[in-house]
Amino acid sequence: MQNLLLEVKNLKTYFYMDEGIARAVDGMDFQIRKGKTLGMIGESGCGKSVSALSILQLINSPPGKIVEGEILFEGEDLLQKGFSEIRKIRGNKISMIFQEPMTSLNPVYTIGNQIMESILWHQNLSRGEAHQKVIRMLDLVGISSPEKRVDEYPHQLSGGMRQRAMIAMALSCEPKLLIADEPTTALDVTIQAQILNLIKKIKEETGMSVMMITHDLGVIAEVADDVVVAYAGKAVEYADVKTIFKHPKHPYTQALYDSIPRLTDTKKRRLEVISGIVPNPLDFPSGCRFHPRCKFAKSFCKEEEPPLEEVNSSHQVRCFIYNQQKGRYF
Amino acid sequence: MPEIILLEVKYLKKHYPIRSGLFSKVTGYVQAVDGVSFCINRGEVLGLVGESGCGKTTVGRLILGLIEPTKGDIYFEGVNISQLEKRALRQLRRNMQIIFQDPYASLNPRMTIGGIIGEPLLIHRTASGKERGDRVSHLLEIVGMDPRYKNRYPHEFSGGQRQRIGIARALSLNPKLIVCDEPVSALDVSIQAQVINLLEDLQAKLDLTYLFIAHDLSVIKHISNRVAVMYLGVIVELAETEELYSHPLHPYTEALLSAVPVPDPTFEKKQIILSGEVPSPMNPPSGCRFRTRCQYIQHGCSQNPPPLIEASKGHFVACYRERKP
Questions:
Q1: Phi then psi for A307, rounded to 5 degrees?
Q2: Beta bridge partners of residue A196, listed in sequence order
Q3: The whole model's pTM is what?
Q4: Taking CB atoms and an 8 Å cutoff, what residues of chain B touch A260?
Q5: Among A190, A270, A277, whose Cβ lies nearest the Cβ of B259?
Q6: Which range, of B15-24, B236-245, B307-316, averages the lowest pLDDT?
Q7: B190, B218, B219, best to mutate vs chain A, most A CBs in 10 Å
Q8: What is the overall mean pLDDT for chain B?
Q9: Using the 8-state DSSP alphabet, how is residue A90 labeled?
Q10: A102 — pLDDT class (breaks 50, 70, 90)
């Protein structure tokens, strides 16, 4: 496809630990279109954060290692690039914001200083010009009296303000892709609404792409254009947001949707339960990784792993139910 | 069914002193809870919802007597517990238990889960020896766990299982009231449903009453019969769940509901984005505490705090817009 910005193919990132090999990301596939938002949803340990960190190669090595796969950004494989080339992309063409804005900002530098760092590194601006740009960025993300805030330290800002400062930092070099790893999980709902609106607004104004990682289906429905559902280190379903919510194919996606209480429920209903527990990356189940918790599982689901197959050109699902040969057993 | 009041809270206040300087002089107060009144009927689930720092957890702990109120009274089955002797209070506490948010921090890692669940029985001398062992096994079964796990330690269990252990511990003394303080917020989405369903089943089976504290409005809607909304230490609205969610009267409730992301991409909603953030409870705004973020602010909002009045039957709201002329 022409309009793809980033394509991740069969990505595998493992962590070699004393307890064994944690296969945090184990054959992940997804695509991000230009100017669109990809929502990645999954539970803890499904590999969503590690996938994001792998794109920027921010995996601590050892114990972590990207063992296989391709990450095509504007047609070039990031995994083939050297350290200095990646450094030119990080914070410049691709930038990232994190869940906990307090721990991802340096407490001993002013926020102005920290935002300026990436501007000075990537852009050919003098300190004075960079300072002006920082103030413009802080204003853009809705921080009031930016010329004063620029000299404040992270502890002087509230949680919502810190996340805004993080966004200002991430946007300072006009990235083509913004990776947001649970950016609103630590925030209250009214502040979450402010931040999500800000990200949406900036995306529309600048035409950048966004990868939004979250465990909240509501956030996905609100911001995403496309959705990838991750389970146990793999993508199990990929489609546009309407299809994911209105016609989900994978039993996990369906069960996930039925298991959450919804504000729009008018009648009292019993929540659907996904039995069992979220699998541990040290020891993923054999065959289809969802089979121990799947109510449709057949004996071959335990032995063989289903491939990610196309239902139609914009909808992929990893389940034997939709497989030409195996499908008839369901 | 006649409604019997199990717990009543009147004008409850908790102010924490702020000390500073060489002699730790009191220089101000954090008004965590500032005049909260409500009651919980037997067999109902009262949801208490609000953003971080609104005082909802403090209310839960005050009710259990884990912290002393600065002012106000708590009546449990008609008995004023703020005036009880220590021994009598201890007797009464059997009837009130708590389930905590963090299933990792709330279980002692050095005790077996049998020990953890059996400890309340030991402290209150209600069962010993084999009887206690049997009771622990029974409790584990009730919460859907294998009694053979008794001799294992908390680290061997997942978050959802640990939360079940916490629930079994809370049930061990056959309480009447359980304060559930964000019991599912630390759990994965698929595990949340398991725990919510378990709490609902237990309530029906054991005739329990819950004070359900959470920040997630969807969870609160699902489980509660009535809901109280807190903002900066005060209750701003209290009503039956359906009524509150379909006809919110307080501007804060309205904004809060509109801010919840709805898991439906085709859902059109009127979004009210609140500007600014929650003011500090050290120095709350005069008059109505919400006025600094309110879109309907009018003359007089900054003078006196609006009282909680009954706007329609069973629907209480603290806002001057609802005052009858």
A1: -80, 165
A2: none
A3: 0.88
A4: 189, 192-193, 218, 263
A5: A190
A6: B15-24
A7: B190
A8: 90
A9: B
A10: confident
